[in-house]
Amino acid sequence: MNRYCRKTPALLCCMLACCGISATLLGQAGGYAAKVEKVDPPKELSQAIASILSNEVVRVTDSKGQVFCEIWWRKSVPLAKAPTNPTASYRDMAETTLVGVIRWVQPGSDYRKQKIKSGVYTMRLAYQPEDGDHMGTAPHSEFLLLTPSTLDQRPAGLENPKDLHELSAKAAGSNHPAVFLLFPAKPVTQAEIRDQGNGHLVLHVTIQAEHNGKSFLLPIALTLVGHSSAN
Fold first, then answer.
1. Which of 16, 72, 133, 180 is most exposed, with the fewest beta carbons within 10 Å of its own?
2. For the chain, which residues score pLDDT lower than 70?
């Protein structure tokens, strides 16, 4: 059984009994595909961050079969509060929580169409500000913000979300953070790419989270291709 299933309640383990992930084609959409392989975290990371990451990478390939990006998720994501449901949600995490690391093999672009250079970046949780500047720019309010790995070397969350916004802006080379939309997610047995409509290609995975010594499943749906219609 895959490590993402360890320490989970028995019922959920039965539900995800098939999550022994291998290096085979797992899920694809729009010509993009995801597979999981055993690969150590990038050497560009600090030892403190590398030590809390899985040694399994989710490798995403594009419609030409070329590697698009690679993602190492955290072994177990700390939750700020106990989930009210059998599985954890984004809002069970504290804002600025480190969730994983992404390596853009090809240049990418964020939800605002900002260009992201090839390289290694940390991914931390953020909520869209509730102000007039952001109304109607996204269908959901949870995002992962990217920060260059050279500027983010400690696993702990940041004291102020504003600090994360400022660091993340350096990933985009602008005055706005590099933002990647999170869709609502449900547990999946295998990593897969789904077409969520309107040009959004979304990676669905289920990783492990914990609170007060108890383990939970944390489903994630991360937009890798797709942009806000407001841009």
1. 133
2. 1-27, 130-137, 231
Rounded Cα distance, 77 and 37, in Å: 20
User: What length does the chain have?
Assistant: 231
Instruction: Please count the other Cβ atoms lying within 10 Å of the Cβ belonging to residue 15.
Output: 17
Element (H, E) at 12: helix 10-15
Is the distance from CB of 120 to CB of 108 less than 8 angstroms?
no
| Residue 154 near residue 122 (C-beta atoms within 8 A) | no
Q: Provide CB contacts within 8 A for 204, sequence distance 6+.
A: 27, 185, 188, 191, 192, 193, 194, 219, 220, 221
pLDDT digits (tens, 9 = 90+) for 157-191: 998 999 999 999 999 999 999 999 999 999 999 99
pTM given for the model: 0.86
Structure tokens at 155: 């696993």
Phi and psi for 188 in degrees, rounded to 5? -125, 155
Strand 200-211 to strand 214-225: parallel, antiparallel, or no bridges (unpaired)? Answer: antiparallel
**Rounded to an integer, what distance in angstroms lies between the CA atom of residue 99 and that of residue 84?**
20
SS3 content of the chain, % helix, strand, coil (to 5): 15, 40, 50
